[in-house]
């Protein structure tokens, strides 16, 4: 479905949000899953018997701390209770930052052929210099709201999100956590407004390579037919010098596990494939 839609995007004229939304693509993004296998570091278990793996179809748009309760219930009898407040995850020895969506982490670190994604649950030696502490879901919610506000400043200089009611912000979080697509978009559509009265002035976009460091670029937007750079993914890569010119053809641009054609319009990509945090996260990887 994604690939068919991308093929039609080369000459899309920037227009109002509701004219560019593709509800089928947005629903596919919302329902995307990553098969994950969790196991415990054998040096950190408190019994002789080694626990079975935990298998989950983790939502791409979600965060690992939202799966912490399931992880706890599965491994609790094998690990000292007082250690579970230190839980962290790693893949191939690399600590995984919890504040990144699961699908983004998979696109950064895992090979497309890796199914399931084998992740190690750790409860000792928390890497304080590499990871942020996260001991409650309140911290995840605060991070989520911070990202929304940051994106709102980029898009509308904060004018829309600052006028939203507290219950609307809470609805975004609750519907996100409980996977309520319609309830989420009933509010999020306001944050995506791109009209003459409230035009999107720039797109909040982050580019990643094979680590969790990123480059954030403000991409100007116009509601007219006059071209503005960067208007395509290729423009963005060239302007940021994120990839050497002679390496671009050897590079894939990945969003939600999909290889994005170089000529894809950024405004379309943002409206339809941005994460619930209202950022467009693009991973750059060699072919």
The CATH architecture designation of the largest domain is: Roll
Distance between the termini: 22 Å
Number of domains: 2
Q: What are the segments in which pLDDT stays under 50 over at least 5 consecutive residues?
A: 1-16
Fourth CATH level, the homologous superfamily of the largest domain: Phosphatidylinositol 3-kinase Catalytic Subunit, Chain A, domain 1
Gyration radius, to the nearest Å? 20 Å
* CATH topological fold name of the largest domain: Ubiquitin-like (UB roll)
Physical arrangement of strands within the biggest beta sheet: 2-1-5-3-4
Number of strands: 10
Number of helices: 10
**What is the molecular shape?**
globular
SSE order, one letter for each helix or strand: HHHEEHEEHEHHHEEHEEHE
Average pLDDT for all residues: 87
Subcellular location: Preautophagosomal structure membrane
Domain Autophagy protein ATG5 UblA: 29-122
Subunit structure: Conjugated with ATG12.
InterPro entries: Atg5, ATG5_HBR, Atg5_HR, ATG5_UblA, Atg5_UblA_dom_sf, ATG5_UblB
């Amino acid at each position: 479905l994604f690939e068919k839609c991308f093929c039609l995007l080369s000459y899309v004229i920037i227009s109002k949000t509701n004219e560019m939304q593709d509800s089928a693509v947005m629903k596919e993004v919302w329902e995307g899953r990553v098969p994950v296998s969790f196991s415990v570091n054998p040096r950190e278990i408190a019994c002789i018997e080694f626990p079975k793996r935990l298998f989950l179809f983790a939502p791409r748009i979600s965060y690992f701390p939202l799966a912490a309760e399931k992880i706890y219930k599965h491994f609790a009898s094998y690990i000292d209770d007082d250690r579970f407040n230190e839980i962290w995850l790693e893949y191939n020895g690399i600590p995984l930052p919890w504040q990144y969506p699961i699908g983004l982490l998979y696109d950064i670190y895992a090979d497309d052929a890796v199914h399931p994604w084998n992740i190690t649950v750790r409860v000792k030696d928390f890497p304080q210099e590499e990871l942020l502490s996260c001991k409650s879901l309140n911290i995840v919610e605060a991070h989520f709201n911070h990202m929304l506000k940051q994106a709102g400043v980029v898009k509308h200089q904060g004018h829309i999100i600052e006028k939203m009611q507290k219950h609307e912000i809470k609805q975004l979080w609750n519907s996100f956590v409980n996977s309520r697509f319609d309830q989420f978009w009933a509010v999020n559509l306001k944050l995506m407004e791109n009209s003459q009265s409230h035009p999107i002035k720039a797109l909040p976009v982050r580019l990643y390579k094979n680590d969790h460091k990123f480059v954030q670029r403000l991409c100007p937007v116009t509601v007219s037919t006059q071209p503005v750079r960067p208007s395509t993914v290729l423009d963005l890569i060239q302007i940021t010098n994120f990839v050497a010119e002679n390496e671009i053809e050897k590079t894939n641009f990945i969003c939600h596990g999909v290889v994005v054609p170089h000529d894809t319009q950024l405004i379309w990509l943002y409206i339809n494939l941005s994460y619930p945090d209202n950022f467009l996260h693009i991973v750059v990887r060699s072919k």
